[in-house]
């Protein structure tokens, strides 16, 4: 087990290095000399010269690369080009609001989707099944932007059921006041694709021979679904949910932007709009590292629920 | 012999329609066309038939396990059990019968068990459902049951997961689950087909013993008439959804009155003689049972035949990763040596995991050999460069096991057969190649219209003929037949074996005939190589091996071959 | 003589069989018809037969849809507004702002004063010449059309009086072209990489796998945004490249798995046995057997990329200003909704929802029809 984790961590290094090179190429090579961008932001030429020196722009590429790697390891990416806030501080303070939305969202979304998918799998092939599936397809075809614009306008602006936007300081206020509508909208958008996916996981399992054995044993259909099928289907479901957590962090950017939630996603949009390279670079590298760690975690959970998997 | 009384279960005029494609209303066909038979108390009834005969559909219909989305039981069908028609029973009532009064075991024990629950849990589930046992009582009973079906160390095995058991043990677990509630009827749907022949024998003996002990009835579904002979009291032969013959074991085996039953009995290569030609289904079409062919072919080597291929000390290892840096070696085959004379057949026989297929693939260089040499006309095939080997490749060809997988489904038969000609520059012009291909099609007994058809339009036997024709395009010297007839129905198997025999005589081909089926290997081969766990355990002339097996493994293997008409139960009561 | 030789009897291949199955599926055919209708509209508008003058201001500002009846200027909330004043789009964020600032800084720094022209803003505008041209064209149109601007249009008008129907048609063209070409690029890349990696295995596979894990470690949207941040110039080609070059990973994973599965299938071993070369095995033997995976993936990607394009254009990272796309329409509509002008939002959302629904339903049916289990 320990050997497995160690080896996986060891194997992550080349991938992480690849991400670093990719980000480096993108920003230091394709992006070109930061002076052009900085010129629009700062009037003080000394400041610009300082940043150029910090990044080693005039040095050969391998030196610049080395500077970048040092930044990653120490977590010190300097200051944002736009606001002057340190990148470290940006990341630390934006994570909380994102999590306030994401954790309840992920839990609700997964549970609701599993429940609905099992229900639909139970009546598979029926008219209800077909109708639900078509409803999902139609629901997924409407842009997330439309959901946000319409819900925000109608539920918050017109009916006044929720605050239009904003964010407070206390967790409970944020969770039960400001985050409600964002979570509701994200659920409306997120359940349909998960429902469809989980349904296929269930249907794959329902066609397995052991389900026939269960029936031959005289088990009731609900018991077959809730005990035998769910246990097997939970393997791909858990893997799917775990592996998608880090990208959710970014995926919620539209919601965060519309509702002015000071989270990571909104920070990415702001940084892209402002060409705030240090912030984007830092977020990209750290989110990539988080993705890899979550993949490892997903595999470990996989092992815990599937006795057949031997970690080597 | 069981005492007969009123039937435990009777099937009356069962008709089932199947639909293959949910979008296509015309894809329906009648899978079972009015089948009637009875299962008496305390006896074993065998339902025999080749693929597509409707035997499994019949069995599944009894327990109401047919997939509802594409199977319909037509009105008028009846399955009577205890005075009630199972087909009209409410779902809950049927459910309380399943697993308690009537239980079932299946062909693939591995996939029939839920992979993420322990076997103990899965057996206990039935007990708690139907017998109202507490978890603790159930656990005690599980160990008893596992012990009864002959699983060593049952207490420890009850907390094992299915994948930790061997195929035979998995089937024993299925049996334990099936007999847990002392059912009146056990339906066994091809329970030994996926198992090796030695394991098959054990499972058959176990089923016979349990049937006797629990005084239950068994409905045994199989494609293999020989297996039936060992276990059944009554035999029902099915073909194309209809019953062809029905009678007691003795009657069916000693005096079959249906031509199809006759054909089935004679299509299998017999062990005690070697007819020149096997009977095929067409021989019986005119409605009479011809006497078995008397002309016998001689097999075996004198030792002076010219050798075309000599293999010395062939070995192939696979490596799996282990620990942080470790590699574990797995020897799929090692120390394999033999000589193949021109125009003769070497049979390679062994159970799953014996390495017999590895030997075939290595000779074709589809796997790289780890050790050893293969001398073809004095040159080592393994040392040749890729370019050099290309010229030798056409002289050694291989026919694979699965005729459904070995033909590219996107090619027409014409494309499949012209491709080797094109690659090796045989034939010259397209017109000439087309002519060559058509000649070959005729040679392997396929009509010329086949040229423009796709493989999916052919039956298994026809596809295997196409695969053989593909090899013949290159006029090889050696043909490796890797389980080439194992996936075919008995009647088709005989046709393909006859074809192989004719081709050998005509082109003086040398065969390496790989199979798990001893009867077929013995019929086809001059010499036989018996393999077990990657090693050669015995190598001799084929008659020699069957008459005087030296190695204990060979003896076990021979003992396990089911002999038609000779019943296990008879032996059990005699002992 | 063989009578069959002269009349070769052809049999349906697997594609023909799949098409037969597809045709039996009524919903698939309806979906296909809808997709075909969109594609036809696209071709007509791309060729300039329809919606050519989508940017002509033929209606009054915010002209409501015909069925609502005409509204006075006060009702429309555009009192005191006339076309000339509204000419600069009121974007929450001007996508040209950074460029303008940069150019302004350059001017202050005295860079190439000779080359730059100054516009009304007092800054160098590289588009000045084009804008002048457009304005001239507009002026020309206005002389003929300004007198009789229509009070209502079938589906209403936007802030400038553009016909929503034509704008939506033009927007569909942009979004679908971006979606389709990007999906084609991603599918070709993914299929090619997947085929090579899966077929050759060993170190080749390791290399591509490394490449794959690098690309998948960075969440897809973040990667797109990062690239968008770096590439300052906007255009249809840029966005196609961004989507295509980052979107190949899913196809790669599936195709690679298929090649690994198929290369040990007996028909490929048989091809090896008859001496077929690697390339022949890869593309003549295996590819036709897995091409349906690529096709279905491309279909799925098209939908995904249309959605992504909408989001990117909405944020201002997508197609350039002045080009209609569903995303930029939604962007305008967002502000219009507060004023109660819902028709642009409705038209863009409905067009997108109908196309994407039809495309998705068709994809599902296609997958069913090509399902190898039914072979």
Structure commentary:
The complex is a heterotrimer of chains A (312), B (575) and C (375). By secondary structure, chain A is an all-alpha fold. In chain A, 78% of the residues lie in helices and 0% in strands. Chain A has 14 helices and no strands. Chain A has helices at 2-30, 35-39, 45-55, 61-74, 87-122, 127-141, 144-158, 171-178, 180-206, 209-216, 221-251, 253-258, 264-273, 277-305. Chain A is globular, with a radius of gyration of 24 Å. Chain A starts with a helix and ends in a 7-residue tail after the last helix. The model of chain A has no long low-confidence stretch (mean pLDDT 83). By secondary structure, chain B is α/β, with parallel strands linked by helices. In chain B, helix 14 (413-423) packs across helix 15 (430-443) and helix 15 (430-443) packs across helix 16. In chain C, helix 2 (14-24) crosses helix 15 (343-370) and helix 7 runs parallel beside helix 11. Chain C is elongated. Chain C has 15 helices and no strands. Chain C has helices at residues 3-6, 14-24, 26-46, 73-76, 97-108, 128-145, 164-200, 202-217, 220-230, 236-246, 249-263, 266-273, 278-315, 326-338, 343-370. Chain C is 66% helix and 0% strand. Chains in contact: A-B, A-C, B-C. The interface between B and C is large, with 41 and 31 residues.
Task: Give a quick rundown of the structure.
Helix content of chain B is 35%, strand content 25%.
């Amino acid at each position: 087990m320990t050997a497995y984790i160690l080896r996986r961590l060891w194997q992550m290094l080349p991938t992480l290095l690849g991400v670093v090179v990719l980000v480096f190429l993108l920003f230091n090579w394709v992006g070109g000399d930061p002076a052009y961008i900085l010129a629009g932001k700062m009037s003080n030429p000394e400041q610009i010269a300082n940043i150029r020196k910090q990044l080693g722009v005039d040095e050969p590429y391998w030196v610049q690369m080395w500077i970048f790697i040092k930044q990653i390891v120490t977590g010190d990416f300097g200051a944002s080009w736009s606001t002057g806030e340190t990148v470290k501080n940006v990341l630390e303070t934006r994570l909380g609001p994102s999590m306030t939305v994401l954790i309840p969202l992920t839990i609700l979304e997964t549970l609701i989707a599993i429940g609905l998918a099992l229900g639909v799998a139970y009546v598979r092939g029926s008219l209800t099944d077909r109708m639900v599936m078509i409803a999902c397809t139609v629901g997924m075809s409407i842009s997330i932007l439309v959901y946000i614009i319409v819900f925000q306008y109608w539920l918050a602006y017109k009916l006044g059921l929720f605050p239009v936007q904003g964010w407070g300081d206390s967790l409970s206020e944020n969770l039960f006041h400001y985050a409600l509508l964002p979570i509701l909208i994200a659920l409306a958008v997120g359940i349909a694709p998960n429902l469809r996916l989980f349904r296929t996981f269930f249907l794959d399992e329902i066609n397995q021979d052991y389900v026939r054995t269960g029936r031959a044993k005289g088990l009731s259909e609900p018991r077959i679904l809730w005990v035998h099928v769910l246990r097997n289907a939970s393997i791909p479901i858990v893997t799917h949910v775990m592996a998608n957590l880090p990208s959710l962090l970014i995926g919620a950017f539209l919601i965060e932007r519309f509702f002015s939630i000071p989270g990571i996603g909104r920070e990415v949009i702001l940084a892209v709009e402002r060409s705030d390279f240090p912030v984007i670079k830092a977020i990209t590298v750290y989110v990539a590292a988080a993705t890899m760690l979550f993949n490892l975690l997903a595999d470990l959970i996989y092992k815990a629920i599937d006795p057949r998997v031997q970690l080597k | 012999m069981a005492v007969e009384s009123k039937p435990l279960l009777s099937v009356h005029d069962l008709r089932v329609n199947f639909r293959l494609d949910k979008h296509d209303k015309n894809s329906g066909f009648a899978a079972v066309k009015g089948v009637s038979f009875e299962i008496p108390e305390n006896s074993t009834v065998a339902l025999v038939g080749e693929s597509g005969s409707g035997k499994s559909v019949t069995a599944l219909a009894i327990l109401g396990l047919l997939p509802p989305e594409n199977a319909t039981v037509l009105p008028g069908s009846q399955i009577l059990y205890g005075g009630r028609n199972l087909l009209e029973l409410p779902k809950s009532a049927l459910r309380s019968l399943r697993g308690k009064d009537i239980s079932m075991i299946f062909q693939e024990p591995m996939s029939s068990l839920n992979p993420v629950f322990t076997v103990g849990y899965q057996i206990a589930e039935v007990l708690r459902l139907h017998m109202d046992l507490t978890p603790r009582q159930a656990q005690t009973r599980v160990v008893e049951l596992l012990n009864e079906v002959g699983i060593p160390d049952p207490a420890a095995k009850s907390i094992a997961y299915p994948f930790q058991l061997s195929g035979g043990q998995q089937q024993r677990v299925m049996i334990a689950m099936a007999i847990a509630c002392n059912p009146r009827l056990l339906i066994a749907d091809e329970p030994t087909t996926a198992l090796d022949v030695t394991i098959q024998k054990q499972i058959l003996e176990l089923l016979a013993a349990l049937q006797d002990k629990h005084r239950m009835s068994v409905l045994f579904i199989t494609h293999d008439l020989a297996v039936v002979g060992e276990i059944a009291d009554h035999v029902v032969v099915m073909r194309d959804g209809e019953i062809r013959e029905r009678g007691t074991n003795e009657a069916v085996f000693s005096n079959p009155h249906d031509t199809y039953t006759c054909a089935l009995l004679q299509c299998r290569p017999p062990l005690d003689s070697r007819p020149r030609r096997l009977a095929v289904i067409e021989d019986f079409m005119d409605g009479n049972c011809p006497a078995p062919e008397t002309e016998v072919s001689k097999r075996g080597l004198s030792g002076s035949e010219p050798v075309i291929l000599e293999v010395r000390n062939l070995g192939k290892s696979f490596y799996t990763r282990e620990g942080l840096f470790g590699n574990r070696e797995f020897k799929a085959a090692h120390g394999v040596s033999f000589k193949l004379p021109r125009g003769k057949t070497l049979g390679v026989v062994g159970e799953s995991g014996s390495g017999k297929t590895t030997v075939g693939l290595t000779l074709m260089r589809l796997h790289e050999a780890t050790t050893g040499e293969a001398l073809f006309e004095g040159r080592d095939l393994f040392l040749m460069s890729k370019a050099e080997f290309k010229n030798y490749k056409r002289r050694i060809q291989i026919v694979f096991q699965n005729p459904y997988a070995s033909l590219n489904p996107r090619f027409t038969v014409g494309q499949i057969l012209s491709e080797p000609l094109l690659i090796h520059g045989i034939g010259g012009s397209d017109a000439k190649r087309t002519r060559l291909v058509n000649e070959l099609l005729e040679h392997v007994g396929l009509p010329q219209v086949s040229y423009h058809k796709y493989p999916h339009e052919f039956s298994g036997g026809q596809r295997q003929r196409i695969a053989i024709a593909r090899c013949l395009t290159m006029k090889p010297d050696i043909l490796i037949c890797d389980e080439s007839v194992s996936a075919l129905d008995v009647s088709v198997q005989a046709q393909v074996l006859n074809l192989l025999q004719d081709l050998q005589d005509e082109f003086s081909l040398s065969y390496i005939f790989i199979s798990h089926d001893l009867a077929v290997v013995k019929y086809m081969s001059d010499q036989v190589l018996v393999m077990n766990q990657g090693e050669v355990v015995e190598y001799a002339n084929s008659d020699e091996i069957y008459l005087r097996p030296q190695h204990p493994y060979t003896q076990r293997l021979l003992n396990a071959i089911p002999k038609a008409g000779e019943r296990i139960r008879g032996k059990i009561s005699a002992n | 003589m063989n009578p069959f030789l002269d009349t070769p009897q052809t049999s349906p291949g697997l594609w023909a069989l799949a098409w037969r199955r597809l045709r039996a599926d009524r919903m698939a055919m309806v979906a296909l018809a809808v997709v075909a209708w969109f594609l036809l509209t696209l071709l007509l508008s791309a060729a300039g037969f329809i919606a050519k003058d989508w940017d002509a201001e033929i209606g009054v500002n915010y002209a409501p849809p015909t069925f609502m009846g005409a509204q006075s200027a006060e009702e429309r909330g555009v009192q005191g507004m006339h076309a000339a004043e509204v000419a600069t789009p009121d974007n929450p964020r001007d996508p040209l702002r950074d460029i303008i600032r940069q150019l302004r800084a350059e001017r202050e720094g005295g860079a190439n004063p000779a080359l730059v022209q100054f516009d009304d803003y007092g800054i160098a505008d590289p588009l000045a010449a084009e804008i002048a041209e457009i304005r001239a064209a507009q002026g020309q149109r206005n002389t003929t059309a300004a007198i009789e601007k229509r009070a209502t249009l079938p589906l209403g008008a936007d802030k400038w009086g553009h016909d929503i129907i034509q704008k939506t048609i033009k927007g569909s063209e942009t979004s679908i072209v971006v979606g389709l070409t990007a999906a084609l690029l991603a599918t070709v890349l993914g299929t090619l990489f997947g085929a090579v990696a899966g077929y050759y295995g060993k170190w080749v596979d390791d290399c591509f796998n490394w490449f794959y894990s690098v690309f998948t470690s960075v969440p897809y949207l973040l990667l797109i945004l990062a690239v968008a941040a770096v590439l300052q110039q906007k255009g249809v080609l840029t966005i196609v490249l961004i989507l295509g070059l980052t979107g190949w990973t899913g196809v790669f994973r599936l195709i690679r798995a298929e090649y690994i599965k198929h290369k040990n299938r007996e028909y490929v071993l048989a091809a090896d046995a008859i001496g077929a070369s690697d390339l022949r095995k890869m593309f003549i033997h295996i590819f036709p057997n897995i091409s349906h995976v690529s096709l279905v993936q491309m279909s799925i990607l098209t939908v995904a990329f249309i959605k992504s394009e909408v989001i990117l254009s909405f944020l201002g990272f997508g197609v350039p200003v002045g080009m209609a796309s569903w995303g930029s329409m939604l962007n305008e509509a967002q502000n219009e909704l507060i004023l109660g002008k819902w028709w642009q939002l409705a038209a863009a959302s409905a067009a997108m929802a109908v196309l994407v629904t039809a495309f998705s339903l068709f994809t599902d049916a296609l997958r069913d029809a090509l399902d190898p289990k039914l072979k």
